[in-house]
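We treat protein structure as text, and this decision shapes the records that our systems exchange. The remainder of this section carries one protein's record, kept here as part of the documentation:
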Amino acid sequence: MIKITTMFCISAMTGVLAFSSVNAADVGITGKVGTLGLGVDLTYGINEKFNARLNLNGASFDADGEEDGVDYEGNLKGQTVGGLIDYHPMSNGFRISAGLYHNGNELDLDSTGSDNSNVQIGDRDYDLSDATLNTKVGFKSVAPYLGIGWGNAIDKKSQWSFSADLGVLFQGSPEAKLKATGIVRDAATGLEADVGEFQTELANEEENLNSGDLESFEFFPVASIGASYRFK
C-alpha cells in the first residue's frame, strides 16, 4: 500500500511555485511511480544538452521480514527530495543523471512474541511472548544518485512524453536501533530477564545488524516510469 505523505504534497507545491517564475517554455513536469514511491519531477532546460531537475518522492510501503527467528512487521517510510543534472549526449531522450538527495527513508518494524516464544537476541535466547521488539533503521540524510533514463520533459517536439529512470541511490550504511517494551523473559528459566544483561545483548544484536545484516540496504535501486508535460 502506498500513501502520499503530507510533507511530500507541501514540497511538491513549493517546487511548482519556485519554477513558476522562469520561462514556461523551458519547464516541464513529470508524474511518476517507482521504487521511491509516487513522485514529481520539475525540469528546467539549461541548454540543448543539459537539464536541471527537482525530484520529489513520498510513500509508505508495508514491510515484513525475519531475523534470528524473530518475525517483523511494519513499514518503509519513503521521503526523498533530489536535485539532479540530466545530460543528453544524443539528439533523443536518452539521458545520464547525477545529483544529491535529501534522504528521509526510514524502516520501522515491530515484532510481538505471540508467534515467537523463543528468539535469539545477541548471544542468548529470550521469550518475547509478553513483549514487543521495535527496530528502526535510518540512513544518511544526504545520498548521491547516479543513473540513466529516457525522456526529456522540455522536448519541443511534443507537449507530452514518456519518462523512465534506472539508477542507484548511495544511501550509505544503515543504522539500526532496537527497543523492547513489555516483559522479556529468559527462555531457559522462564523468569523475567535481568535488565542489564538483556540491554547488553540488545546492544550486541544492534551491532550484528549494523555490521553486516543490513549491508544490502546500502545501495537502494531506483526505477520509475512516468508521463511528462511541457508548459507552453
Remarks:
- The longest strand covers residues 50-67.
- The two ends are 35 Å apart (CA to CA).
- Residues 1-22 have pLDDT under 50 and may be disordered.
